[in-house]
């Protein structure tokens, strides 16, 4: 099936996060990754690359973290290749172990915890679904665990350091300690209330996106907790609704999805919405309700368009959009076939992608 193509543009010597995302190599055509016209075939090809992409990202992160750093010189991008080629068996085992720990957490976030919450909500014991304190801490651990392209660039070059470098969201050093300071009783009360307040299939729509109902009351219930803002609240609700009918699913406000859908930050993009970016290219948003409403609508539009084109490739959910956004943001390590993928979920040819000049 023919797809619209766009050319990647070259980068200046000093690259920002948005430039890293917006361009990977010169003179190479790739299928359109524009969320307004991406095809179901390309979408699902990207989705199928999520497992190997998240593994590659964490292997790279852990290699950089565990490799001894030079004392007198800055680490350059080529040091990553050297570090990977010079890994000792002991270091290799440690990198693999650290990556496997995250992959277990990732599986728990996308499969294990949604199933636990689904079972809790289905019990007829008078209690709705809830998240306990240990689970909330683990959810936050997942949220803080995935490095962004900028965070990895900082490992390669400390001069790129900013106090606000992010992972799945805006980085705050005290965030985990704030989460841990919440009383167990309050965590149970707020999460149970939030889940019980989620709009159902008979609720009155208050947005135009597929008739979905924005979960303002549920967000308000969760943000009573210390360390829980709109983005983290949306993550809890996303996990709580992942096993629900598509119409009831709540999307997670992640940097990846906002950059792709709202800031038009993706390889081949010609109109990056720079109002959402800081001068250094970092995401410059406030993570508030208005931004989440914008993302909510964009997510609904993409899901509705893809599902409206038929189910030959399978129905698309918000979790699928989230994972595709992660692959788009880390396309250079995904193994994505710049020729367009195989159109539907088989093996995608892995090609080496030229490195961005720093």
Number of separate strands: 2
Distance, first to last CA:
36 Å
Helix content: 40-55%
DSSP summary: helix tally: 14
The largest β sheet comes out as:
2 strands, antiparallel
Can you give the mean pLDDT? 78
- Describe the strand arrangement of the main beta sheet, using strand numbers: 1-2
Region (Disordered): 60-95
Biased composition (Basic and acidic residues): 75-95
Short key terms for the protein model shown above:
single chain, 358 residues, mainly alpha, two-stranded antiparallel sheet, 2 strands, 2% strand, globular, disordered C terminus
Describe this structure in words.
By secondary structure, the protein is mostly helical. It has a two-stranded antiparallel ribbon. Residues 1-27, 150-167, 206-211 and 340-358 have low confidence and may be disordered. It has 14 helices and 2 strands. It has one domain (5-333). Helices cover 48% and strands 2% of the residues.
Give the helix/strand layout:
Blueprint: E1 5-7, H1 17-22, E2 29-31, H2 40-48, H3 50-66, H4 77-85, H5 89-122, H6 133-143, H7 149-156, H8 175-180, H9 184-196, H10 216-222, H11 230-241, H12 255-262, H13 289-308, H14 318-329
Antiparallel strand pairs: 1-2
Brief summary of the model shown:
Residues 75-95 have a biased composition (Basic and acidic residues). This protein has 358 residues and is mainly alpha-helical.
């Amino acid at each position: 099936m023919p797809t619209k193509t766009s050319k990647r543009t070259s980068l200046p010597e000093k690259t920002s996060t948005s430039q890293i995302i917006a361009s990977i190599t010169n003179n190479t055509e790739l299928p359109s990754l524009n969320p307004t016209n991406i095809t179901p075939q390309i979408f699902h090809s990207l989705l199928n690359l999520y497992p190997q992409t998240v593994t590659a990202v964490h292997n790279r992160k852990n290699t950089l973290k565990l490799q001894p750093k030079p004392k007198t010189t800055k680490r350059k991008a080529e040091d990553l290749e050297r570090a990977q080629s010079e890994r000792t068996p002991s270091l290799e085992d440690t990198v693999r172990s650290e990556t496997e720990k995250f992959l277990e957490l990732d599986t728990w976030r996308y499969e294990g915890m949604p199933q636990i919450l689904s079972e809790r909500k289905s019990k007829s014991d008078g209690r709705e679904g809830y998240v306990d304190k240990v689970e909330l801490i683990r959810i936050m651990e997942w949220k803080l665990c995935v490095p962004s392209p900028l965070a990895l660039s900082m490992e390669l070059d400390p001069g790129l350091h900013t106090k606000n470098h992010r992972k799945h969201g805006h980085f705050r050093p005290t965030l985990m300690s704030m989460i841990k300071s919440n009383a167990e009783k309050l965590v149970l009360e707020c999460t149970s209330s939030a889940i019980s307040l989620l709009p159902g299939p008979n609720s009155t729509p208050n947005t135009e996106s597929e008739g979905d109902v924005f979960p303002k009351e549920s967000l308000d219930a969760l943000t009573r907790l210390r360390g829980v803002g709109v983005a983290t609240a949306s993550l809890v609700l996303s996990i709580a609704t992942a096993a629900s009918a598509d119409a009831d699913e709540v999307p997670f406000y992640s940097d990846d999805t906002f950059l792709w859908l709202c800031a038009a930050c993706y390889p081949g993009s010609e109109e990056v919405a720079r109002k959402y970016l800081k001068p250094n290219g970092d995401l410059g948003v406030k993570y508030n309700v208005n931004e989440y409403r914008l993302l909510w609508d964009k997510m609904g539009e993409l899901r509705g368009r893809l599902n409206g084109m038929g189910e030959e490739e399978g129905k698309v959910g918000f979790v699928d959009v989230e994972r595709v956004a992660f692959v788009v943001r880390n396309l250079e390590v995904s193994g994505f076939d710049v020729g367009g993928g195989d159109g539907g979920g088989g093996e995608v040819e892995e090609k080496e992608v030229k490195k961005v000049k720093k």
